[in-house]
Amino acid sequence: MYTHKCYAVFALVISCATAGNAADFSDPTWPCIQRKVERLSVGLMWPAPLSEEVLDPATKTAVDELAETLALRRVDLEEARGAVATFAEVQGHDMALMGAVFERVFDRLSNRRTRIINGIGEFSLGQIALSEKIDGARAEMDSQMAQSEPDFDRVDALEEQVDWDQRIFTDRQKTITYLCETPTLLEKRLYAISQMLQEAGQSG
Fold first, then answer.
1. Measured torsion, CA atoms of residues 148, 153, 154, 157, in degrees rounded to the nearest 10
2. Contact present, 167 and 51 (Cβ < 8 Å)
3. What gap in Å lies between CA 27 and CA 66, rounded to an integer?
4. Which pTM was predicted?
């Protein structure tokens, strides 16, 4: 029952964040099609209250090590599932313990996601500043060419600068799709990890 409820809630979160939403142009720090959700809620991804029980040192070490492994993006989900299964065999199929693992994974990945969103904001503001610089140079070129005796040396210098800045702007812009997808990929990973931990906790 918990698993079905969590599936439904997460599906709603993802659909709200991605489906059919245009970029919010009122926010210059968010150039993405995906809706900006600055912070995630652990309660939307874990179906039960997280235990505040203090773990013994050996168990805490095992929990921390598993959480660190699951949080690594280079660890694919099949490897992650194997690590969870091994942990459950040794530590037991206990939902409270699985919740402790998920809480640590959530903290790591949600903090990483926040840093990425902040980075996207800085990237966007940098692109806006560069675009304004290009527009300003083009306006000065037009002004120079409108004069009876244009300063052609200045025009040449401006044209060279515009060409360089435009190349940088375009190259950077090619990365925006990847940058914008990364927060959603982290959300999906968190959800998948939540599901495998729930399954391990409920299978005992």
1. 140
2. no
3. 38
4. 0.77
Give alpha helix (H) positions in the chain: 2-18, 57-71, 77-91, 95-146, 152-173, 176-202
Residue type, 115: R
Provide the Cα torsion 42, 46, 48, 52; round to 10°.
-50
Fill in the amino acid letter for 132.
Answer: E
Residue 200 in tokens = 């391990």
**Per-residue b/e over 80-107, b at no fewer than 16 CB within 10 Å?**
bbebbeebbeebeeebebbbbbbbbbbe
What does the pLDDT profile of the chain (204 residues) look like in tens digits? 444 444 333 333 333 333 334 445 578 889 999 889 888 989 889 988 888 888 889 999 999 999 999 999 999 999 999 999 999 999 998 999 999 999 999 999 999 999 999 999 999 999 999 999 999 999 999 999 999 999 999 999 999 999 999 999 999 999 998 999 999 999 999 999 999 999 998 875
Task: Tell me the one-letter amino acid at 202.
Answer: Q
Residue 15's contacts (CB-CB under 8 Å, 6 or more residues apart) are none
Chain centroid to Cα 26, Å, comes to 20
What phi and psi, each to the nearest 5 degrees, are found at residue 53?
-65, 135
